[in-house]
């Protein structure tokens, strides 16, 4: 694996680990005010898993699209830069969403989650139809594309009662 591939793999693993750790630290620091963990985790996951990850992925796809395509073992296309603009857009929304209304947070989460599940489906389709077992196709990128939307959906559903009470 190239050093670029190692960086991308680490990037995805990091963005799966940072939100629960940062939310736990925040909750532990402020637990005396009775804040519950799940709403905080949702905001942290949106900020890091959608905002920071989307923003950074977008910049990488816009400016280094050829290396991203190589990591996936896919042919490069100018479409990678367009995909980067989509990631960048959701990244900016994800950076704003934790500080906005719950509706904005949910809309941002669901929109990016739908994209990620679609991306995961594309990776799996490529594995099944071409046998592409490149790390970028079946490694941390795939797991991130599956886990982030599932956890976001679970947190949205798990915090809806808290939102009604607020």
Automatic annotation (TrEMBL):
<feature type="transmembrane region" description="Helical">
    <location>
        <begin position="137"/>
        <end position="157"/>
    </location>
</feature>
<feature type="transmembrane region" description="Helical">
    <location>
        <begin position="79"/>
        <end position="97"/>
    </location>
</feature>
<feature type="transmembrane region" description="Helical">
    <location>
        <begin position="104"/>
        <end position="125"/>
    </location>
</feature>
<feature type="transmembrane region" description="Helical">
    <location>
        <begin position="6"/>
        <end position="28"/>
    </location>
</feature>
<keyword id="KW-0472">Membrane</keyword>
<dbReference type="Pfam" id="PF20589">
    <property type="entry name" value="DUF6790"/>
</dbReference>
<dbReference type="InterPro" id="IPR046740">
    <property type="entry name" value="DUF6790"/>
</dbReference>
<feature type="transmembrane region" description="Helical">
    <location>
        <begin position="40"/>
        <end position="59"/>
    </location>
</feature>
<keyword id="KW-1133">Transmembrane helix</keyword>
<keyword id="KW-0812">Transmembrane</keyword>
<protein>
    <recommendedName>
        <fullName>DoxX family protein</fullName>
    </recommendedName>
</protein>
